[in-house]
Amino acid sequence: MPNLKNQHFNLKNLAVLFALLLLLGCASMQTPQGGPKDTTPPKVLSMTPKNQTRNFNAKKIVIEFDEYFNLKDEFKEFSISPDQEKAPELKKRGKKLEINLQDSLEKNTTYTLNFGKSVADVNEGNVVKNLSYVFSTGPEIDSLSVSGKVINSLSDEAEKDVTVFILPIERDTLFGKKRPSIYTTTDSAGTYKLNNLRKGTYKIYALKESSGGGDKIYQQISDEIGFVKEPIVIDKNLENIDLQTFKELAPEFRILERKLNNDGSILITFNQQLKSPKITITEPAALDAGKQVFFNKTNDTTKIWLNDMSFDSVKVAINDQGKLLQTLNFTRGKKDTYTRDVTISDNLIGGKLNPYQQLTLTFPFPVTAADPSKIILLEDSVKRNTFELVKDSVDFLKYYIKYPWKNKKNYDLKLGAGTFTAIFNAKNKDINKRFTLESADAYTTLVLNVTVPDTSKRYVVQFLNEKKDIIKSFPVAKNSKITFSKYPAGKYMLRVIYDENKNGIWDTGNVKEGFQPEKVWYLKALMDLKPNWEREDPLVIPAPPKGP
């Protein structure tokens, strides 16, 4: 008689085994989740022929990596020096990169293949930085080098991922026209080193390209540049060849942006900071008398309001220092309509008013009338009528509310609908603002006793915030005191500009003219200015730092 119990046991085990296999099979189909992000670029395992090969006569070079890779922008990133009429051909073969030399090689010459940022891993795009291959068709390899550091001329910070390149002096005319073949990129500390150089006289440059660039060709409109004015003679290893990058001013005036806004204003942005700008409506000439023009602080942007928008087209002439720069034509459709919202911004920070300022109201376009009777000011819920509404004497986009604001009081400001009337009879809607007066104890004062290195020169002492935005500037010509008074407590830094042309601002450089930007010096220690604090410190300005 069959053993039913054993048979049942075997069937039960078989069912469990089947379930386990099914579970494992399902588990194996899942994609692993999580894990650390891959930040390591491909590593070179071998180069054939070996790097630094002498008496080179091969037609193909093979570089093997430890993982699969992609080639990106190889036509832009890869170069060979000296140049060849027929550029080498790059091919992927699994984890190997083949470089086929398609042109003949010169005798007794060192060649450098520079791959730039063309080789990166497949998954994360980690780039193999400064990958190069060097060989010589003769018994010797050029072994000279140039090294140094690249910093930003104004911020004094190291510039990483900047291209540093040299051009033989006879090829310097190609600057900005053709990408260099001898180059490297700076590391995170801003340092660079160009290797395997031959004896000669060169010009050296540092190029910081804007986002979207990468062709290693200088574009003045978008890139920053650094250079050493005098050619460098490479007959030994050169160290401490430092460069400072800067943004050149545009040599020729050009319009960057022009448009007729949806509120009817005209916006024009230039590529230069104008010195004494003027806007004229030439056609229809009758519109010129009623126009209102606003320039920003740097005089590189203007906004124009016209009191009549019935024109089909209008011509706007841009002048600077009495010279006509350009005339622009703006057209509008007869059915075009405009939206004008009288929004009002203010100078409150975190619901608090600076005790050394009046409440400032700023408008998006000119205000033609104001009705103080529609303003309600409450002090701790008690109505106050002793405030004044004052229009700025210069800036037609600003009004002030003057009142003897008090500490530990709560203020409610209600601007009723129609308090302000702007051009084309646009009116504000109801606006409510609630604030308190910041305590004067939250502010600070620092007096500096400044000693200058040369009284025949000029200097500008600047207080900056932690983001290096300018808070206050003081022109200085001799040993004197400057007072940084009634500013919010916090951390500040000091920068000194060596004002060579004595115009009170920092001036950039010019490659074509061969002059460097004005030098700067930073007080390295960050100053922590405490609340309700006043102190006096010395500031000894050193002699100008040495530069390129």
From TrEMBL:
Tell me where in this chain the SbsA Ig-like domain is found: 38-137
Q: Which Gene3D superfamilies match?
A: Carboxypeptidase-like, regulatory domain
Give the signal peptide range.
Answer: 1-29
Per UniProt, which keywords does this protein have? Answer: Signal
What parts of the sequence cross the membrane?
A: none
Q: Which Pfam families match?
A: Big_5
* Coiled-coil boundaries: none
Output the InterPro entries linked to this UniProt entry: Carb-bd-like_fold, SbsA_Ig
Any GO molecular function: carbohydrate binding
Judging by the UniProt lineage, the source's domain of life is: Bacteria
Protein name per its UniProtKB record = SbsA Ig-like domain-containing protein
